[in-house]
Amino acid sequence: MEVRILPDRAGLGAAAAADVADALRATIAQRGAARVVFAAAPSQSEMLAALVRQPGIDWAAVTAFHMDEYVDLDASAPQGFGNWLHTALFDLLPFGEVHYLGTHGDAQTADAYATALAAQPIDVVCLGIGVNGHLAFNDPPVADFDDPKLVKEVELDTECRQQQVDDGCFAALGDVPRRALTLTVPALMAGARLFCVVPGRAKAAAVRDALEGPLGTACPASVLRRHDACTLYLDRESASALEGQKALS
Q1: Which of 60, 124, 52, 63 is nearest to 97 (CA)?
Q2: For every one of its 249 residues, what pLDDT tens digit does the chain have, with 9 covering 90 and above?
Q3: CATH code (residue 183)
Q4: Does a structural domain hold residue 12?
Q5: Does residue 227 form part of some domain?
Q6: What is the distance between the terminal CA atoms of the chain, rounded to a whole angstrom?
Q7: What is the tally of structural domains in the chain?
Q8: Cβ atoms within 10 A of the Cβ of 159, count?
Q9: Which residue segment(s) compose the domain that 104 sits in?
Q10: Is residue 75 part of a domain?
Q11: What is the rounded CA–CA span in Å between residue 25 and residue 28?
Q12: What CA–CA distances, in Å, run from 35 to 39, 60, 126, 230?
């Protein structure tokens, strides 16, 4: 895994967006289309804003997915990840196709989304790492590196739900839904290129565990070390707990 450490969030977002754009342009040039999965979180804001400004991408040739969604959340709620991405990205560019993961969370919804996801290979996955090391909503208690499913319903652990409050998405822990639909670890790892954007001091311990701790579901993000083409983008704060970087914090 390539690790890039940038001075701040703005630099991190710009660097990641430039690399994602290069991958999209190359994929579209090679086969005429690209399929991309996007994470929805404040940690992705700088990268997505910079990606919108990237030139030379034929967005009409891009099919987009988002990687997780709350269950039992009102479909119009701004905290919904599909709604967040609609505002931050999908409404700003002429995507060829956008697949939204619904909020009612039944098996039929998960299976239909998995079918659309599996119709062709995924070229690019833009993701982050949670404070508990989660990828998408694969928290430590439910993460499975060999999950037979592509999409499943999960129970969110308390640390994951508290992160949504700390990120300013919900006013209180009791407001955060307890259930979600998520792409599984194998679904994410199937992407040809992974671009993992992780800014902020709150993520420093999770980054350390992902890079320097045991490889296992206690830190789901550690599985990224198995991927042949994953780039991790950190700022000085999120890298501050790594060996050799502590002096920068």
Answers
A1: 63
A2: 999 999 999 999 999 999 999 999 999 999 999 999 999 999 999 999 999 999 999 999 999 999 999 998 888 888 889 999 999 999 999 999 999 997 666 667 889 999 999 999 999 999 999 999 999 999 999 999 999 999 999 999 998 899 889 888 889 999 888 899 999 999 999 999 999 999 999 999 999 999 999 999 999 999 999 999 999 999 999 999 998 664 343
A3: 3.40.50.1360
A4: no
A5: no
A6: 23
A7: 1
A8: 14
A9: 31-41+56-126+134-194
A10: yes
A11: 5
A12: 14, 11, 11, 16
- Does 50 fall in a domain? no
Cβ atoms within 10 Å of 170's Cβ, excluding its own:
17
What does the alpha-carbon distance between residue 223 and residue 87 come to, in Å, rounded to a whole number?
A: 30
The amino acid at 90: F
For 90, phi and psi rounded to 5 degrees?
Answer: -65, -30
Tokens read off for 64: 């987009």
Find, among 131, 125, 101, the residue nearest to 221 by Cα.
131
Q: Which of 148, 169, 151 is nearest to 160 (CA)?
A: 169
pTM assigned to the model: 0.94
